[in-house]
Automatic annotation (TrEMBL):
<dbReference type="InterPro" id="IPR013324">
    <property type="entry name" value="RNA_pol_sigma_r3/r4-like"/>
</dbReference>
<feature type="domain" description="RNA polymerase sigma-70 region 2">
    <location>
        <begin position="8"/>
        <end position="72"/>
    </location>
</feature>
<dbReference type="Pfam" id="PF04542">
    <property type="entry name" value="Sigma70_r2"/>
</dbReference>
<dbReference type="InterPro" id="IPR036388">
    <property type="entry name" value="WH-like_DNA-bd_sf"/>
</dbReference>
<dbReference type="InterPro" id="IPR014325">
    <property type="entry name" value="RNA_pol_sigma-E_actinobac"/>
</dbReference>
<dbReference type="InterPro" id="IPR013249">
    <property type="entry name" value="RNA_pol_sigma70_r4_t2"/>
</dbReference>
<protein>
    <submittedName>
        <fullName>SigE family RNA polymerase sigma factor</fullName>
    </submittedName>
</protein>
<dbReference type="InterPro" id="IPR007627">
    <property type="entry name" value="RNA_pol_sigma70_r2"/>
</dbReference>
<dbReference type="InterPro" id="IPR039425">
    <property type="entry name" value="RNA_pol_sigma-70-like"/>
</dbReference>
<dbReference type="Pfam" id="PF08281">
    <property type="entry name" value="Sigma70_r4_2"/>
</dbReference>
<comment type="similarity">
    <text>Belongs to the sigma-70 factor family. ECF subfamily.</text>
</comment>
<keyword id="KW-0804">Transcription</keyword>
<feature type="domain" description="RNA polymerase sigma factor 70 region 4 type 2">
    <location>
        <begin position="100"/>
        <end position="152"/>
    </location>
</feature>
<dbReference type="InterPro" id="IPR013325">
    <property type="entry name" value="RNA_pol_sigma_r2"/>
</dbReference>
<keyword id="KW-0238">DNA-binding</keyword>
<keyword id="KW-0805">Transcription regulation</keyword>
<keyword id="KW-0731">Sigma factor</keyword>
Length: 159
Protein backbone atom coordinates (compact mmCIF):
# COMPACT_ATOMS: atom_id res chain seq x y z
CA UNK A 1 0.00 0.00 0.00
CA UNK A 2 1.31 3.44 -0.89
CA UNK A 3 0.93 6.59 1.17
CA UNK A 4 -1.57 7.96 -1.35
CA UNK A 5 -3.70 4.80 -1.18
CA UNK A 6 -3.65 4.94 2.62
CA UNK A 7 -4.74 8.59 2.61
CA UNK A 8 -7.54 7.90 0.11
CA UNK A 9 -8.85 5.06 2.25
CA UNK A 10 -8.38 6.39 5.78
CA UNK A 11 -8.36 10.20 5.77
CA UNK A 12 -12.10 10.67 6.38
CA UNK A 13 -12.25 8.27 9.38
CA UNK A 14 -9.12 9.87 10.86
CA UNK A 15 -10.68 13.31 10.48
CA UNK A 16 -13.90 12.15 12.20
CA UNK A 17 -11.79 10.70 15.02
CA UNK A 18 -9.86 13.98 15.35
CA UNK A 19 -13.12 15.96 15.50
CA UNK A 20 -14.23 13.77 18.39
CA UNK A 21 -10.92 14.40 20.15
CA UNK A 22 -10.75 18.15 19.65
CA UNK A 23 -14.41 19.09 19.55
CA UNK A 24 -13.62 21.56 16.77
CA UNK A 25 -13.58 20.67 13.07
CA UNK A 26 -10.95 23.29 12.26
CA UNK A 27 -8.57 22.16 14.98
CA UNK A 28 -9.22 18.58 13.90
CA UNK A 29 -8.19 19.43 10.34
CA UNK A 30 -4.99 21.03 11.64
CA UNK A 31 -4.28 18.03 13.85
CA UNK A 32 -4.82 15.55 11.01
CA UNK A 33 -2.74 17.66 8.65
CA UNK A 34 0.20 17.79 11.07
CA UNK A 35 -0.09 14.07 11.73
CA UNK A 36 -0.29 13.16 8.04
CA UNK A 37 2.83 15.21 7.31
CA UNK A 38 4.62 13.14 9.93
CA UNK A 39 3.14 9.96 8.48
CA UNK A 40 4.39 10.86 5.02
CA UNK A 41 7.87 11.59 6.33
CA UNK A 42 7.93 8.23 8.13
CA UNK A 43 5.89 6.23 5.62
CA UNK A 44 8.35 3.34 5.35
CA UNK A 45 8.13 2.71 9.09
CA UNK A 46 4.34 3.13 9.09
CA UNK A 47 3.89 0.78 6.11
CA UNK A 48 5.97 -1.92 7.83
CA UNK A 49 3.73 -1.86 10.92
CA UNK A 50 1.34 -4.75 11.49
CA UNK A 51 -1.57 -2.34 11.24
CA UNK A 52 -0.72 1.00 9.59
CA UNK A 53 -4.11 2.42 10.54
CA UNK A 54 -3.58 1.65 14.22
CA UNK A 55 -0.05 3.09 13.99
CA UNK A 56 -1.37 6.33 12.48
CA UNK A 57 -4.24 6.52 14.99
CA UNK A 58 -1.66 6.24 17.74
CA UNK A 59 0.42 8.98 16.13
CA UNK A 60 -2.67 11.19 15.89
CA UNK A 61 -3.66 10.51 19.51
CA UNK A 62 -0.16 11.24 20.78
CA UNK A 63 -0.07 14.38 18.67
CA UNK A 64 -3.39 15.45 20.22
CA UNK A 65 -2.27 14.73 23.79
CA UNK A 66 0.98 16.65 23.28
CA UNK A 67 -0.45 19.27 20.93
CA UNK A 68 -0.24 22.86 22.03
CA UNK A 69 0.25 22.25 25.71
CA UNK A 70 1.37 25.82 26.11
CA UNK A 71 -0.90 28.38 27.74
CA UNK A 72 -0.92 30.51 24.58
CA UNK A 73 -3.79 28.54 23.12
CA UNK A 74 -7.10 28.70 24.92
CA UNK A 75 -10.48 27.85 23.56
CA UNK A 76 -13.10 30.51 24.13
CA UNK A 77 -16.75 29.58 23.92
CA UNK A 78 -19.13 32.48 23.42
CA UNK A 79 -22.67 31.91 24.54
CA UNK A 80 -25.39 34.31 25.54
CA UNK A 81 -26.98 33.99 28.93
CA UNK A 82 -30.46 32.47 28.67
CA UNK A 83 -33.36 34.73 29.49
CA UNK A 84 -35.17 33.06 32.37
CA UNK A 85 -38.41 35.01 31.79
CA UNK A 86 -39.04 33.62 28.30
CA UNK A 87 -40.59 30.17 28.15
CA UNK A 88 -38.72 27.99 25.70
CA UNK A 89 -40.47 25.19 23.90
CA UNK A 90 -38.58 21.94 23.51
CA UNK A 91 -37.63 21.39 19.90
CA UNK A 92 -34.64 20.40 17.81
CA UNK A 93 -32.55 23.21 19.26
CA UNK A 94 -32.51 21.47 22.63
CA UNK A 95 -30.39 18.71 21.17
CA UNK A 96 -27.90 21.32 19.95
CA UNK A 97 -27.79 22.86 23.41
CA UNK A 98 -27.27 19.44 24.98
CA UNK A 99 -24.50 18.67 22.49
CA UNK A 100 -22.80 21.99 23.29
CA UNK A 101 -23.03 21.20 26.99
CA UNK A 102 -21.44 17.79 26.48
CA UNK A 103 -18.66 19.33 24.36
CA UNK A 104 -18.09 21.85 27.13
CA UNK A 105 -17.80 19.09 29.74
CA UNK A 106 -15.51 17.03 27.50
CA UNK A 107 -13.27 20.02 26.81
CA UNK A 108 -12.55 20.35 30.54
CA UNK A 109 -11.29 16.79 30.82
CA UNK A 110 -7.55 16.17 30.65
CA UNK A 111 -6.50 15.28 27.10
CA UNK A 112 -5.61 11.68 27.92
CA UNK A 113 -8.98 11.03 29.61
CA UNK A 114 -10.79 12.59 26.68
CA UNK A 115 -8.78 10.48 24.24
CA UNK A 116 -9.62 7.34 26.23
CA UNK A 117 -13.36 8.14 26.12
CA UNK A 118 -13.28 8.83 22.39
CA UNK A 119 -11.36 5.62 21.71
CA UNK A 120 -13.78 3.61 23.86
CA UNK A 121 -17.17 5.07 22.98
CA UNK A 122 -16.64 6.57 19.52
CA UNK A 123 -14.06 4.23 18.01
CA UNK A 124 -15.47 1.27 20.01
CA UNK A 125 -12.04 -0.14 20.77
CA UNK A 126 -11.39 -2.70 23.52
CA UNK A 127 -9.16 -1.78 26.46
CA UNK A 128 -6.14 -3.61 25.06
CA UNK A 129 -6.21 -1.66 21.78
CA UNK A 130 -6.74 1.63 23.61
CA UNK A 131 -3.71 0.82 25.75
CA UNK A 132 -1.76 0.08 22.60
CA UNK A 133 -2.79 3.37 20.97
CA UNK A 134 -1.92 5.39 24.08
CA UNK A 135 1.17 3.39 24.98
CA UNK A 136 0.06 2.57 28.51
CA UNK A 137 -1.18 -0.38 30.56
CA UNK A 138 -4.73 -1.73 30.33
CA UNK A 139 -5.26 -0.84 33.99
CA UNK A 140 -4.36 2.76 33.22
CA UNK A 141 -6.97 2.80 30.48
CA UNK A 142 -9.64 1.49 32.83
CA UNK A 143 -8.77 3.94 35.59
CA UNK A 144 -8.72 6.83 33.09
CA UNK A 145 -12.18 5.86 31.83
CA UNK A 146 -13.44 5.58 35.39
CA UNK A 147 -12.05 8.98 36.37
CA UNK A 148 -13.36 10.66 33.22
CA UNK A 149 -16.85 9.23 33.67
CA UNK A 150 -16.86 10.21 37.35
CA UNK A 151 -15.95 13.77 36.37
CA UNK A 152 -18.67 13.87 33.72
CA UNK A 153 -21.24 12.48 36.19
CA UNK A 154 -20.31 15.19 38.70
CA UNK A 155 -20.68 17.86 36.01
CA UNK A 156 -24.06 16.42 35.02
CA UNK A 157 -25.33 16.42 38.62
CA UNK A 158 -24.23 20.04 39.07
CA UNK A 159 -26.07 21.06 35.91
Amino acid sequence: MTYEEFVDARLAPLLRYAVMLTGDPHQAQDLVQETMVRVQLNWRRVARADSPERYVRRMLTNQYVDWRRGSWVRRVLLRGEPDETVAVSTDHTQSAVDRDQIWSWLSRLPRRQRAVLVLRYYEDLPDAEIADVLGCAVGTVRSSISRALATLRAEYVEA
